Amino acid sequence: MIDPEVIEITLRSLIISLNATLIALTWSMIIAYLIAGSQSKLAHGAISISNALVGLPTVLVGLVFYMLFSRTGPLGIINLLYTPQGIMLGEAVLITPLLISLLYEVFHEHRLRFWELAISLGASSKQAALLVIRESLPQLITSSLIGFARAIGELGVALLIGGNIRGYTRVLTTSIALEVTKGEFEKALSLGLILLTIVLSIVIIVRALRAYLQ
Amino acid sequence: MIELRNVSFRYPNGVLALNDVNLSLGNGVTAVLGPNAAGKTTLLKVLGLIYKPFKGEVIVNGVNFWRLKHENERLRIRREIVYVHEKPLLIKGNVVSNLMYGLLIRGFSKDNAFNTVMAVLRKLGLDYLAFKKSKELSAGEAQLISIIRAIVLNPRYLLIDEPTANLDADKRKLIIKLIKNQLSRGSKVIIATHDNLLADKLANNIVLMEGGKVVSIGGRELLSKLI
User: Fold this and answer.
1) Under 8 Å CB-to-CB from A116, ≥6 apart: which residues?
2) What is the distance between the alpha carbons of residues B146 and B198, in angstroms, rounded to a whole number?
3) pLDDT in the model for residue A205
4) I need a surface site. Which of A145, A172, B92, B99 has the fewest CB within 10 A?
5) Which long-range contacts (CB under 8 A, 24 or more apart) does B124-129 make?
6) Residue A122 and residue B102: Cβ atoms within 8 Å?
7) Could you tell me the CATH number of the domain that includes residue A55?
8) Which helix (H) or strand (E) holds B119?
9) What is residue A2's predicted lDDT score, i.e. its pLDDT?
10) Is B101 contained in some domain?
């Protein structure tokens, strides 16, 4: 019999990380698309910075957001500290450089080809952008899944911004950390197994998508 | 009429691909000839309003295209010109969806676009290709489809980069027939090619290029020096 709390924690993890990925995708897609279509030095600088920030330490992002969201911080007024929404925002920012870097590669390749094709056939800028996105869709899904895997597996942001509050902000990673400190290694391992299953499922989906594309 | 006035184009890597080109396209078929890296493809892309020159003016039907402010005005002119890439590039899906794309973005209904492309395919005896997936086409078939995709739009100016590359003799004949048909519908056709024999078969205007410059413009008599 599976502990109902474990199911609840798993579902919360999935929902928070899914929302974080969707939030990050909205701005990452726009930024990556604009950078891919630009020849300016600023755009090249932006992608270099984004590449450098792919391995951004999660604890550092958590700390920065903790300071921003804390009662005396500049964003304290919006009361996001120790809330699931706060974790979503923190995770979204955490995975943004990764998504921008991945999406830039996709758009850079597809924009060169399909943008020009669409324009040469009489498409407006909007129609050309839609064609680029349509042709990039499988790779966009792959990139999003990689971003999601990074979000669901991180600890620093969820712990520092979420505070690991039972029944509210407790997610798989913070729960594992807690169980380890309590010496409940068996429960920590079973939670770890769930997390591993989710991440491995994503890897399998990504591989299957890549195989389909090739 | 498309006219280039003192046009220069430089790629982001610094290569000057067109250097002070002046050109006015005449009626019929214009063949742009020249060695590799002469600037033929770049010239076609500038004529096709895909590349914006860093210097000079592109005049289409008396309008300085790159001075137009509103996208609608640009789009109206752009849709009179269709450029076909040297390497055929097809979108995902099948042949019909590729042929329908240009019509759909021009506001055709799905049914209307479908019927139009099927009629063209039947007329050419290529309806057996209609539902074949893009990725399953041979290089020659892909080349043919990318040219037909342009022709179904019945553009005023049809620009084709290396129209007979990748093609066997039968498909080559078909392309020549398609281009001649398009001429009879009132289009002006501009081809960039290494194939002097193709130019001899089709062109009445010749543009010779070398090192990003137009070195000679004339009639068919120029071909006699090349063939």
Assistant:
1) B45, B50, B85
2) 18
3) 86
4) B92
5) B124/B148, B124/B174, B124/B178, B129/B95
6) yes
7) 1.10.3720.10
8) helix B110-123
9) 77
10) no
What was the pLDDT predicted at A213? 67
* Conformational region of residue B31, where left means phi above 0, alpha means psi within -120 to 50, and beta covers everything else: beta
CB pairs under 8 A between A and B: 47
Whether residue B140 lies inside any domain: the answer is: no
Q: Which domain holds residue B53?
A: 2-87+158-163+187-226
Model ipTM? 0.91
**Residue range A82-92: average pLDDT?**
97
Number of folded domains that form chain A: 1
Residue B187: enclosing H or E segment and its boundaries? Answer: none
More confident residue, B220 or B79: B79
A137 pLDDT band, cuts 50/70/90, is confident
Rg, Å, chain B Cα set: 17
pLDDT of residue B226: 67
Q: How far is A50 from chain B (nearest CA, A)?
A: 22
Residue of B nearest to A131 (CA): B91
Contact across the interface for A122 and B84, Cβ inside 8 Å: no
